[in-house]
Amino acid sequence: MNRPTGLIAIALALGLAQITWANELTNLPQPPELATQSTYLTNEEVLFLPTDTGTAWAFFRAKPITDYLEPTDRIPAIESVEVLKEPWGEPGSVRRVSLDGGGAVLERVLTSTDTEFTYRIWDVQTGSGRFINHIYGEFHVRPVNDGAEIVWRYNIAPNAFFARPFIRRFLNNDFEPFMEGGLAGLDAAFQAQQ
Question: Taking 90 as the threshold, does the pLDDT of residue 26 lie above it?
Fold first, then answer.
């Protein structure tokens, strides 16, 4: 077995490998500030689950929505996910999501509680990304008669006012069915375990 030698051995012994990780985070583009609600263009989808909110939320948190999302002509598949600041899912954690075709986005968790999970997406490196300043995503659980609802709200802040019609069409024509499909997959998984 080969052992690290020279500066590499010293760096490992001193724990300096963590410095590379920290430097990678500082080299990332800084996320933009969240916008006012009126700036966003929003799509909201809701999934009803016939159970209490605690069970619904625990199931949602254990089964990531990304497991059920299907690529479309305009929304590429997720190729890989690299966690840059752990643990993923906790406020402040960061990951890079690489997309089929060479694009990528950065994601940071903003809140993670017993009833909500919010995140920011920025540095959107896709064809439509040139129109997007950032995305503010929200998942919430709420009680309703005979069950619980998982609410997914996707809020896009455009880079410029002229981009608003393009983003509205993208949300209506592409992202709405993408979200519906992801929630339908989550629903099917929930029903299968019953």
Answer: no
